[in-house]
Amino acid sequence: MRSWSIPVGRLFGVEVRIHLTFFILPMFIYWTEYAVHQAANGPRDLALVGIILACVGAHECGHMLAARRIGLIPKAVILLPLTGVALYDESRVEKAQAAGPVWKRDIRLALVGPLVSLALAGVAAAALTIAGHGAELWQWPFLQAAKLPKSLVWANLYLAIFNLMPAYPLDGGRVLRALLSRTRDASTATRRAVSISNAIAMVLMLAGLFSDSWLTMVGVIVFSAAQLEERALVFQSVLDNVRLEEVMLTDFATLSPADTLEDALEKAVHSLQDDFPVVRGSDMVGVISKQRILDALRAEGNGYVQAVMNKIFEVSLRQDSLSSAFRKLTARNSSIIPVVEDQRLIGIVTLQNLMHSMALLAESRKLRRDEAES
After folding, report:
1. How far is CA 203 from CA 82, 102, 218, 226, in A?
2. Are residues 175 and 303 in the same domain?
3. Structural domain tally of the chain?
4. Residues 18 and 161 placed together within one structural domain of the fold
């Protein structure tokens, strides 16, 4: 998620990020405006980019609000020039899945986005008509920096139309995946939808070379979005199928509740860990992070670990999946999970090593799958 996107803020408590393909859009609009009119207007071109971004944001807001109504809680959304890729809170997914057939739920959620875009286009068109500029709506080119009110109408119309293409993760592609999942498992349905999406993206990019260059841009965006979803699928496969015993740290440092904060910081300096289990004898009594130690030293001076450690924490068994561990981490906004056996601490999983292990396991599984398919 963070490799090809940057954060721009939060909306309804959801982290909003912009995919780097969005930054190709200003250059593309400048180039097309200059090619058609032999002139370009920097501020107006940027305003057109802002309109497209706002339309995509409104489109995704429709998806997020509809998802919240059925218990799917988005924790982040990545905005691309035509669509968005939402990441949901794993700790709340089961509640949503219990609400009814997943494929029907996914179809309803997918259709919300185009309906929102069509509604916004209708409102903007009505306002333009009332203002006496209704005739401009049908003058070519429809999306033009010189006519920003008209562009607001057509940006929403184009978003609705393009998102109905059966190219995953566009909304039409999500409908296709939902229909495929009726007879296949979710992973197979997603892979099939991604394959179809890649084929459509290639056709669009080739068609754009011989006709409208906007088709090439759409193809690039569809291909980029499909790759994001494919990577998310591989990560989910890792989460579901890998056990904690395969990735837990067995060589780790511990702290005592009787350690002073300065002693704890000294131990932390010589360790690669960011989070530490706090152990009294053979019993684990708390967890503490390196950052928490630093914050306590700055705020209150030297004290004891026992006074500032977190005494409420989750534990896991070695046979538990990464998916269950990840849900526990996100549910409590924690960064460490002790792994126990017979009430004895045998390892730890930290958010730091979990993400590192997931990345490596995802890449290795993708390589093995590519080799098997070839």
Report:
1. 17, 30, 10, 14
2. no
3. 2
4. yes
- Whose CA is closest to 268, among 247, 297, 289? 289
Q: Are 33 and 40 in contact (CB under 8 A)?
A: yes
Length of the chain: 374
- Given 131, 150, 182, the domain boundary residue is 182
Give the end of a domain, one of 129, 154, 182: 182
Q: Is residue 239 part of a domain?
A: no
CA angle at 353 for the pair 348 and 359, rounded to the nearest 5°: 140
Identify which of 87, 19, 352 has the alpha carbon closest to the alpha carbon of residue 235: 87
Using alpha carbons only, give the angle 81, 87, 93 rounded to the nearest 5 degrees. 145
- Which pTM does this prediction carry? 0.67
Per-block mean pLDDT, blocks of 10 residues, the chain (374 long): 76 84 78 64 81 90 87 81 73 52 87 95 92 80 80 92 89 92 85 90 89 81 80 72 83 90 88 86 85 90 91 86 78 80 84 70 68 67
Q: Spell out the SS3 assignment of 178-193.
A: HHHCCCCCHHHHHHHH
Encoded tokens for 209: 């070379």
Residue 353, domain CATH: 3.10.580.10
> Where do the H-state alpha helices sit in 168-271?
171-180, 186-210, 213-241, 261-269
What are the beta bridge partners of residue 286? 278
Task: Specify the pairing of strand 5-11 against strand 14-19.
Answer: antiparallel
With a CB cutoff of 8 Å and minimum separation 6, the contacts of 187 are 233, 236, 237
Nearest in space to 192 (alpha carbons), one of 221, 233, 224, 154: 233
Expressed as residue numbers, the domain containing 80 is: 5-182
287 contacts 277 by C-beta, under 8 angstroms: yes
254 and 137 in a single domain? The answer is no
Number of Cβ atoms within 10 Å of the Cβ of 39: 8
The dihedral sign for the CA sequence 235, 239, 244, 249? positive
The string of pLDDT tens digits covering residues 19-67 is 887 787 777 777 776 666 656 567 888 888 889 889 998 998 999 888 8
Q: Check if the beta carbon of residue 333 is closer than 8 Å to that of residue 348.
A: no
